[in-house]
Model the fold of this input.
Amino acid sequence: MNADKIPDIIIGRLPIYLRALQRMSEKGMKTTSSQELGEHVGISAAQIRKDISQFGEFGKQGTGYSIPFLMDKLREILNVNKMWDVAVVGAGDMGHALARYQGFKNRGFQVVMVFDNDASKIGQKVGDFVVEDTNKMVERIHAAKIKMAMITVPASAAQAVADRLVQAGVKAILNYAPVSINVPNDVHVQHIDPSTHLQRMTYYLD
Amino acid sequence: MNADKIPDIIIGRLPIYLRALQRMSEKGMKTTSSQELGEHVGISAAQIRKDISQFGEFGKQGTGYSIPFLMDKLREILNVNKMWDVAVVGAGDMGHALARYQGFKNRGFQVVMVFDNDASKIGQKVGDFVVEDTNKMVERIHAAKIKMAMITVPASAAQAVADRLVQAGVKAILNYAPVSINVPNDVHVQHIDPSTHLQRMTYYLD
DNA sequence: TAGATTGTTAATCGATTAACAATC
DNA sequence: TAGATTGTTAATCGATTAACAATC
Done:
């Protein structure tokens, strides 16, 4: 184990590796090499070896990496060898999709609450959840010690929601609203905006 | 204008700048500085000036950048000064949310078709669209000259769908399936996977 | 004019790649 | 053993930052 600070760009690749390993494992594969894993994820074998070696010697010369072992190690490193409770704020189409999404549970996450400020939505069912009033959000999230949330409200409301999530003790926010949000240094934010992703590709089209 | 190849990492920041400028413009602002824009998006002023200056001299010493002018230029550079037709493949919750999403239209995109292979979904309405049979997809997309698509099918089907999209002439894919997909060099892919984004943050939590 | 801010250069910093000894 | 593949080093490559002359 390396005590130095690991660059965030490396941290960002670990979930990609883990996801590919999960797929391989589902197919019954027991071992892989940096070469093979690299072909799956589109990253050079040298970089994969370098990334992984930041955290320990998890491979074997001549045979490569044990898939279950490396998955365990990556889950440990990423802190997803446990389940994280996640709150969804915004019960529109996207909040609905996230609340019902089956892809979280084998990746370390479970949605546990859904909030909205629209009276016509509060009390309604969304997936397995009853939509709760945003007014109760800070209290509820704080009491449940929830550290992660996803924002699916309109752009105009996103910053205010983020502020309240921070107030409630949330330390990681996945923001689906198409606007940059600002949070204190000890809070992490990731942005998902389909238009932004599409625009990154149209540059190369004509 | 610079004829050299612009690094993709710079291209990736332009949509972020454009999005922030759109917000500023909605608030009635007419000009901004690299300093101010940087505070909004969390990027240094020096980097913003350097990025923008790759494409021309769009600012004025002493006063900064005209917001409408810079938006125009960024739209031109990113090829979103026109509307792009986009196909959605997969009419589950996520496909549904994307088909109805109101955030595309002022960013240069419009969904025009939705496909699924589930007989119980084909013919049903999703937003303004009637779900079409995936069997007709290659033909339909090719005939309509559609160059962009979003994949919201299960991970196990994503690669096969991607292959057929490529066959149909699609050059840019936004993949919501939680699996890496491989495409030819002239096709662009962006991945959106909420679990991956969340895992990138749990590393820093405890 | 004085103040503000760009565009650009050079320096610094960080990330990726190539190569190979070690070793399974 | 022979072949394969890791972990690591050094070299290369690329990105970011700091600083400032130019100029609005």
Observations:
- The radius of gyration of chain A is 19 Å.
- Chain A touches chain B through 59 residues (CB under 8 Å).
- Residues 33-35, 45, 49-50, 52-53, 57-65 of chain A lie near DNA strand D (CB under 10 Å from a C1').
